[in-house]
Amino acid sequence: MGTRTKISAEEIVEKISHLCMDVNFQVSDDVLDALKNSREAEASSVAKEVFADLLENAKIARECQMPICQDTGVAVVFVELGEDVEITGGRLYDAIHNGVRRGYKEGYLRKSMVANPLKRVNTGDNTPAIIHTELIPGNYIRITFMAKGGGCENMSRIAMLTPADGREGVINFVVETVRIAKANPCPPIIVGVGIGGTFDYAALLAKKSLLRPLGIGHRDPDTDCLEKEMLERVNNLGVGAQGLGGSVTALGVHVEWSPCHIASLPVAVNIECHAHRVKTVVLGI
Amino acid sequence: MSNIIHIKTPLMDDTTANLRIGNRVLISGIIYTARDAAHQRLVELAGQGKKLPFDVRNQIIYYVGPSPARPGRPIGSCGPTTSYRMDVYTPQLLAMGLKATIGKGNRSDRVIEAMKQYKAVYFVATGGAAALLAKRVKGADVIAYQDLGTEAIMRLEVEDFPVVVANDIYGNDLFREGMVKYQNR
């Protein structure tokens, strides 16, 4: 019988709180590269100015330890929990919520959660986090933190297509989602697409697809091809940075798919903005 | 690179008459923040014939919910929030003399018509450039609805706050024109 690795709840709290601040103050390298490349490739002079602003903003945010965007997002936490891990001194989910509470307080981040979607009273501490957990073999925990803004999230859509709608139907749904979103999700955007599974699983796949770094294609050649085709179609819309018109509307399109029912073709489109605050830590190794 | 226009608040009709879509503008003076919840309260007050927390005539409203300020700084990060959510409230405020709004994203046809009628403009600030925009805010005071937290109405003192004219008083729309130009390239 293998030994179980002990990981303390307090260590999880501390790591989560740092993740909250790190993602909000520092734009990741893959996004910075994508913004620089877009500024070069962009045909519209108005849009070029927007890309320049975003790069300048990233510099100021990092130097002054200020959020890159005032919407510091809902805390979405993906946990890959090793089956040989034992968490001590507290419960995993409590530790995650406490880490968010601490990070959003110490980082002067905005508290943007309401306890009840209809009554709408602010929780005051940006909890609860939205947590997705998977069990994996091993004696470590991998935690991926995503601060997800409300504006881009609001432009996400899901549809239960029919199998007859096929590949073209899926592409059309994705492109139409970006078209009707216009400036609202704060372009340039990143498009996460989930295909297959069930109604709920397609949406989860769409969000998980956003965790892959920009500039890395899909491991499956057909899916890689599909991503590139969708990206071209989306950029042909001409929405542009901030919706003011331009040749770069999306920095990338990512697709994840899953087996599904013989009668179904679920497609979920999760829109992400250029803040794209995602970071991973591993505990126990 | 187009010329940059410097304007000072309060915003008068002769200034808005000279603005055209696409103009890059730097605003100095006082602007007021308000978003969803505050607009709901303002419009309710107006409907009851009561006085608003501030006189909107010739003023500018900025749609924003800032992040908390670190000690020693006037404001946290403060980029624009999406304007369409305030569309339903805006025509009434324009009728009361509001001269400009700042946000991101396009406005509805009804708001565009109202801006034409009341000679008001709509500016966009760069969404996601929240730290950069915060640097142009020199002072910030809550003047109403403290209970709304980040959605409280604040009076901001700004210096060279960078915006672009998205709708002018002549009914032109930068979003409509921009997207058409870059479609199917």
Ends of chain B: how far apart?
22 Å
Give me the count of strands of chain B. 7
Mean pLDDT of chain B: 95
Specify the biggest β-sheet of chain A.
4 strands, mixed
What is the helix content of chain A? 25-40%
Cα Rg of chain B: 16 Å
Total number of domains of chain B: 1
Taking pLDDT < 50 over at least 5 consecutive residues as the criterion, the unreliable ranges of chain A are: none
- What number of domains of chain A? 2
- The best one-word shape of chain B is globular
The H-and-E topology of chain A, N to C, reads as: EHHHEEHEEHEHEHHEEE
Our measurement of the CA-to-CA distance between the termini of chain A, rounded to an integer number of angstroms, reads 19 Å
CATH class descriptor name of chain B: Alpha Beta
Assigned CATH architecture of chain B? Alpha-Beta Barrel
Radius of gyration of chain A: 19 Å
Q: Which strands sit side by side, in order, in the main sheet of chain B?
A: 2-3-4-5-7
| CATH H level, superfamily name of chain B | Fe-S hydro-lyase, tartrate dehydratase beta-type, catalytic domain
In N-to-C order, the SSE pattern of chain B is EHEHEHEHEHEEH
Uncertain segments of chain B of ≥5 residues (pLDDT<50)?
none
What layout of secondary structure does this protein have?
The complex is a heterodimer of chains A (285) and B (185).
Chain A: E1 5-8, H1 9-25, H2 29-41, H3 45-64, E2 74-82, E3 85-88, H4 92-106, E4 130-136, E5 141-148, H5 150-153, E6 157-161, H6 166-181, E7 189-197, H7 199-209, H8 221-235, E8 250-260, E9 265-273, E10 277-283
Parallel strand pairs in A: 1-3, 2-4, 7-8
Antiparallel strand pairs in A: 2-5, 5-10, 6-9, 7-9
Helix pairs in contact in A: 1-4, 2-3, 6-8
Chain B: E1 4-8, H1 13-17, E2 24-33, H2 36-47, E3 60-62, H3 90-95, E4 100-103, H4 109-118, E5 121-124, H5 130-134, E6 137-144, E7 153-167, H6 174-182
Parallel strand pairs in B: 1-2, 2-3, 3-4, 4-5
Antiparallel strand pairs in B: 2-7, 5-7, 6-7
